[in-house]
Structures are given as C-alpha cells and as structure tokens.
Design brief:
The longest helix has 38 residues. Helix content is 80%, strand content 0%. It has eight helices and no strands.
Length: 213
C-alpha cells in the first residue's frame, strides 16, 4: 500500500514542479502575454510588492476558501499542497536565475511556447496522480456544480473576469494571453489521459506482485 501511495505522490510532486517551471518560463517573457491567472498575480506583485509566488499562494488559498464554502468535496490534501508548492517553486526558480533573459525577438515566442507545453504536461501529471485538483480547478468545478453549468462556460467567464481585473491593474496582457488556453488545454488533456493510464498501470503491477509474493 505504501508503494501505491508513493507512486501517486511522486507523480504529483513531479507534476507540480514541472507546472511551476512552465509558469516561471512564461513569466520571463511576459511581454508576450500570460495566462489570465498569472496576469493577475504579476499585476498584484507590480502593484503591491511581495513576490509573484506569494500572490500565487494568497490567491490559491482564497480560491480554496470559496470552494470549501461552495462544495467541500473538491478540497483534498493535494489541493492545499498545490496552493503552497506552486508559489514556492515559482519563487525558487526565479531566485536561481537559471532562465535566460528575454531577447524581445522571435526566440521569446519559442520560449513562451515551451513554457506553455511544460505547464500542460505538468498540470496533466499532477492531476493524473489523483490526490487533489489545483485550487483553480476546484474553484471552477464547485461553481459549475452550484450553478448547474458546464465547466467550459464557467472557465471562460471566470478567466475573463480575472483577465479584466489583471488588465485594470496593468498586468502583462498581450496576444499570447488570448491563445494560452487554446494551446495549453489540449496538451493538458493528452498528458492527463496518458499519465493517468501509466499511474494505474504501475499500481496494477504492484498489486499483482503483492499477490504473487
């Protein structure tokens, strides 16, 4: 049983690390635009200080609180850890200075696309672990259930409102902002399905070996 949980939590941790790394990559070339939630976090950082990771944590905890009020079923251990770890990893990656400076030329487009792909892969991996959705996903799912609306519609409305707030705070909104979801979502979906099958396969092998022994 311990190995089974270890598989899930290792997948979760690796996914969160990748997801956070992808966010940090996109932030380095933020002049091209960011995901609406990251537009808001960067805008809050520029307006009020702290760090981008700190605002990531604050906003995530706020979303968890709202989700808890609306529907507790979407709040799990992994949800709380996600709220803290993503912000910490983003600040850590930025602190290391390992990412290149923006060139303000075509290589930045390649950089942000790489970041979006990594975010999609990381998000798919940590969700495939099945230990809890991220605060944003839990927030939107709880609202969708409460209003009996499709998650797609809730996602569009929620991210549009977040984008407007970020825009009013003069966050980094550009063309990639409006393409972000369309690029990331298919990658996330593919990664989730693929990694979910692998997690289940590894657990199945463990169960079989346990019965044989």
């Amino acid at each position: 049983m311990k190995l089974k949980y270890m598989i899930r939590w290792l997948s979760y941790l690796l996914g969160v690390m990748l997801f956070s790394f992808g966010i940090t990559i996109t932030i380095t070339v933020q002049h091209l635009g960011l995901h609406p939630w990251d537009v808001l976090n960067v805008a809050l950082y520029q307006k009020f200080g702290l760090t981008i990771g700190a605002w990531q944590i604050i906003m995530s905890l706020l979303l968890i609180l709202i989700s808890y009020i609306l529907d507790k079923s979407y709040i799990r251990t992994g949800t709380f850890l996600n709220a803290i770890l993503v912000g910490l990893f983003v600040d850590f990656y930025m602190w290391t200075g390992i990412l290149p400076e923006p060139s303000y030329a075509w290589p930045d487009v390649v950089t942000i696309l790489i970041g979006i792909v990594i975010m999609g892969l990381g998000g798919g991996l940590y969700n495939a672990a099945g230990v809890g959705s991220g605060p944003r996903d839990g927030f939107m799912l709880s609202i969708a259930d409460k209003l009996d609306a499709s998650i797609g519609k809730i996602r569009i409305v929620t991210e549009s409102l977040v984008l407007v707030i970020g825009l009013l705070l003069r966050g980094p909104v550009h063309v990639i902002t409006f393409l972000f979801t369309f690029i990331q979502s298919p990658i996330f979906q593919w990664a989730y399905v693929r990694f979910r099958k692998n997690v289940i396969r590894l657990e199945s092998r463990y169960e079989k070996s346990k019965h044989v022994s």
